């Protein structure tokens, strides 16, 4: 064992009772659960490299009694969790081999999936820390006299093209392109430099030699390759890499900018909804994404619950949309909160590019790109909150920005809720499940039970009443492996990775 | 949480009785509810108050969450529109005038005082509706909220204003509020009482009134200026006008009442912060000190009205 468990993980078996269609006829799937702890502030001095050194304790290999001990350490550590440790984004790369998280402290932690080993085939799927780096630092804008938070708002991976991995990370104002590469050799025997890199005195050089590459311990390096700054007046809420692999868009509250990945000193403004007079502002852009295949198409969502599809071939400035998706308001459910709860917090194209998924406060909707007047499917995420909207407005929860994700085959969608609950909806069977990402309720090898929130008067056993939901524990960020049934769920400062059992 | 026997108008939408109903002191809520026999109006009022506080707090941040600010501002506009259209304001003002508790009187007073102000304003500028009222509603809200469990930040920030408000409210009490009130104080000195020492008010008259107006427009900007990051001081008047341009002009008077309803001492966010630091400790004693000032204020009012 290494030093105190400021970072540990446990592997647990759990039963999703998941609706994933991939697992054959059985509706029960064993899942493994990983738990990651963020480091307490005491270790803040050198958090970046220490994470790499730590070997996660594999609790699945240990006895039950030992597990309890380690769980206690989790509880202790929990008190140390700081604001900076709160996970603010989580994202699989296009192969699913890597998983990146960003936090409010500006750090990016990259996990790598353990390679399959013949001796322990069941361990396939575990993710270990691969690289950790400080992506953004807190800054101060002296001209505007305001602080720029280091919080990572979004991470997007670029499709892998060589041995190195590239990702884009963004805070409120600045997007950075990071290269993550491995190095296990170093050159030795330079003629003009000595082993420490100092220039040698030419007079002492009497013979020439051929430099050689010597093996060394594997090192994972993260280097900032590009910094895309000074293009956003408002807060960047999303970034999206184009399928042409050359451009990406960054979106703030009022504008969408198009960048070339190679060029940092200029970007093209392709959407601008800023009114000449800011007093007239009634709508903001909440998210934008490129179409997965058509490099000229992108969609953006608004705080009024609509989605606009734009075609960049039509004009340089895409102020005119080519499609406008909006559902007419139901007068029977109209209230003062109608607009707030219809504000879209996330928009995602399906992998096949046929559908759009949007998340608003109470529902997830799937839209067919060919049908603009109403969504194809609407799923209630936590309809029991409909009667609590005023309290949720009062405590500001109504402004929480929940994200949503597709599974690899676009047949299941997932999104978060409160009380560390997250929801999955099977689009084919129309079945849904509520699961909980919680340390307290997940013992090693235990079955992860579906949770139920009781709406009516009588609460049955195992049900949670609406009034006892913890609104400070919210799952805003989740991600789904692009090909397999592996999901990562960020619950405040904990990351849970659930895996559909292979065997 | 909510007075028993009040009906929910939000029932079709499944809305719970507004939880913010418990923000008003019991006396206030029951009185209003009794008079209006409508919890819906009360809910709407608390929602409005809550939204205005949120907007103001948004503005205190250098770079607020724009999406949130816009959604709250839209909610305020929606409420305002509905209130002006269904005419609940008149009933409300009468109810408040009749009510016994200081918080209610306060609002009533503000309405009437502001009435004069609005008249003066109409003379100066063509714009009928001002955001000023919105902004200031936030101050009067503060009194209504007193003693409640709202967030500590809100309470601690706001409470220092209350002594002034309460004193203003007491002005109204002895005079038996009525429509004639506004005529009586045509000279527009009444609003002076809100922001300045009452004695000075008597002597300063119109000059102070002008200051007052200019301050109004400034504060109005500030609320919706929240959206502007690059240029913290947006052009004021056309914007304010625009904000309420969709309101039917036939409701002009109602709206004046409405904005007046929300009136309270003029303070910018920074003033507010200052007062927080300087007057913080006086908060608790505010109500008792107001009571002791009551007689004096009565006397002053007699002078004003008599003149």
Automatic annotation (TrEMBL), chain A:
Gene3D superfamilies: YVTN repeat-like/Quinoprotein amine dehydrogenase. GO terms for molecular function: protein phosphatase regulator activity. GO terms for cellular component: protein phosphatase type 2A complex. Transmembrane segments: none annotated. It comes from the Eukaryota. The keyword rRNA-binding does not apply. PANTHER family: PROTEIN PHOSPHATASE PP2A REGULATORY SUBUNIT B. PP2A consists of a common heterodimeric core enzyme, composed of a 36 kDa catalytic subunit (subunit C) and a 65 kDa constant regulatory subunit (PR65 or subunit A), that associates with a variety of regulatory subunits. Belongs to the phosphatase 2A regulatory subunit B family. This is Serine/threonine-protein phosphatase 2A 55 kDa regulatory subunit B. The gene is ppp2r2ba.
Automatic annotation (TrEMBL), chain B:
Residues 181-208 have a biased composition (Acidic residues). It comes from the Eukaryota. Residues 209-219 have a biased composition (Basic and acidic residues). Residues 40-87 form the SERTA domain. Residues 1-30, 177-219 are annotated as: Disordered. InterPro entries: E2F-SERTA_domain_protein, SERTA_dom. GO terms for cellular component: nucleus. It holds the Pfam family SERTA. This is SERTA domain-containing protein. It comes from Dicentrarchus labrax.
């Amino acid at each position: 064992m290494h030093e105190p468990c400021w970072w540990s993980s446990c592997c647990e078996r759990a039963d999703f009772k998941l609706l994933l269609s991939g697992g054959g006829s059985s509706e029960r799937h064993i899942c493994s659960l990983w738990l990651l702890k963020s480091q307490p502030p005491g270790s803040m001095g050198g958090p970046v490299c220490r994470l790499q050194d730590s070997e996660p304790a594999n609790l699945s290999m240990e006895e039950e009694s030992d597990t309890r001990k380690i769980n206690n350490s989790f509880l202790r550590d929990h008190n140390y969790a700081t604001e900076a440790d709160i996970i603010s984004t989580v994202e699989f790369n296009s192969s699913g081999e890597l998983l990146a998280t960003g936090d409010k402290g500006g750090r990016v932690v990259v996990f790598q999936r353990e390679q399959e080993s013949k001796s322990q085939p069941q361990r396939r799927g575990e993710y270990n820390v691969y690289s950790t780096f400080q992506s953004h630092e807190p800054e101060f804008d002296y001209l505007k006299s305001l602080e720029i938070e280091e919080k990572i708002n979004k991470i997007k991976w670029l499709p892998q093209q060589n041995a190195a991995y590239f990702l884009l990370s963004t805070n409120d104002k600045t997007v950075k392109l990071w290269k993550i590469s491995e190095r296990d050799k170093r050159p030795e025997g330079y003629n003009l430099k000595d082993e420490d890199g100092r220039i040698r005195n030419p007079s002492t050089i009497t013979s020439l030699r051929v430099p050689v590459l010597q093996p060394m311990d594997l090192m994972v390096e993260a280097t900032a390759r590009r910094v895309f700054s000074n293009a956003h007046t408002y807060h960047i809420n999303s970034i999206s890499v184009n399928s042409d692999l050359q451009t990406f868009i960054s979106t703030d509250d009022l504008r969408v900018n198009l960048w070339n990945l190679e060029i940092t000193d200029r970007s093209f403004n392709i959407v601008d909804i800023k009114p000449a007079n800011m007093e007239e502002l009634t709508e903001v852009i909440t998210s934008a994404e490129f179409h997965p295949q058509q490099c000229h198409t992108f969609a953006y969502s608004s705080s009024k619950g609509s989605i606009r599809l734009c075609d960049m071939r039509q004009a340089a400035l895409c102020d005119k949309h080519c499609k406008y998706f909006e559902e007419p308001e139901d007068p029977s459910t109209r209230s003062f909160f109608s607009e707030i709860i219809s504000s879209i917090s996330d928009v995602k194209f399906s992998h096949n590019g046929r559908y759009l998924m949007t998340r608003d406060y109470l529902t997830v909707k799937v839209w067919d790109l060919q049908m603009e007047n109403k969504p194809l499917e609407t799923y209630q995420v936590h309809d029991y909150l409909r009667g609590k909207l005023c309290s949720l407005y009062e405590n500001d929860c109504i402004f929480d920005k929940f994200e949503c994700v597709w599974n690899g085959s676009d047949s299941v969608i997932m999104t978060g809720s409160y009380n560390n609950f997250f929801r999955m909806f099977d689009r084919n069977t129309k079945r849904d499940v509520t699961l909980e990402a919680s340390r307290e309720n997940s013992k090693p090898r235990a079955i992860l039970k579906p949770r139920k929130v009781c709406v009516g008067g009588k609460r049955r056993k195992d049900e949670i009443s609406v009034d006892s939901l913890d609104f400070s524990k919210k799952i805003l960020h989740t991600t789904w492996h692009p090909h397999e049934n592996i999901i990562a769920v960020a619950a405040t400062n904990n990351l849970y990775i659930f895996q559909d059992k292979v065997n | 949480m909510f007075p028993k026997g009040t009906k929910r108008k939000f029932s079709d939408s499944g809305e719970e009785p507004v939880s913010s109903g418990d923000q008003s002191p019991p006396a206030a809520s029951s009185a209003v509810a009794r008079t209006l026999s409508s919890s819906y109006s009360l809910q709407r009022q608390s929602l409005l108050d809550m939204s205005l506080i949120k907007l103001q707090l948004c503005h205190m941040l250098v770079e607020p969450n724009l999406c949130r600010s816009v959604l709250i501002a839209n909610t305020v506009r929606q409420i305002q529109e509905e209130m002006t259209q269904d005419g609940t304001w008149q009933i409300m003002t009468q109810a408040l005038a009749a009510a016994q508790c200081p918080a209610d009187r306060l609002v009533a007073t503000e309405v009437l005082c502001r009435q004069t102000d609005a008249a003066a304003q109409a003379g100066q500028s063509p714009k009928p509706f001002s955001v000023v009222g919105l902004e200031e509603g936030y101050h009067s809200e503060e009194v209504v909220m007193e003693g409640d469990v709202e967030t500590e930040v809100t309470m601690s920030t706001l409470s220092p204003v209350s002594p002034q408000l309460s004193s203003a409210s007491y002005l109204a009490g002895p005079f038996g509020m009525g429509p004639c009130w506004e005529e009586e104080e045509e000279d527009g000195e009444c609003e002076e009482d809100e922001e300045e020492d009452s004695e000075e008010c008597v002597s300063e008259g119109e000059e102070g009134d002008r200051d007052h107006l200019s301050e109004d427009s400034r504060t109005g900007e500030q609320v919706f200026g929240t959206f502007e990051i690059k240029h913290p001081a947006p052009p004021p008047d056309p914007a304010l006008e625009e904000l309420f341009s969709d309101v039917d002009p036939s409701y002009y008077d109602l709206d004046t009442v409405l904005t007046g309803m929300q009136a309270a001492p003029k303070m910018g966010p920074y003033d507010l912060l200052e007062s927080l630091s300087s007057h913080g400790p006086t908060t608790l004693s505010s109500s008792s000190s107001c009571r002791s000032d009551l007689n004096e204020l009565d006397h002053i009012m007699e002078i004003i009205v008599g003149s």
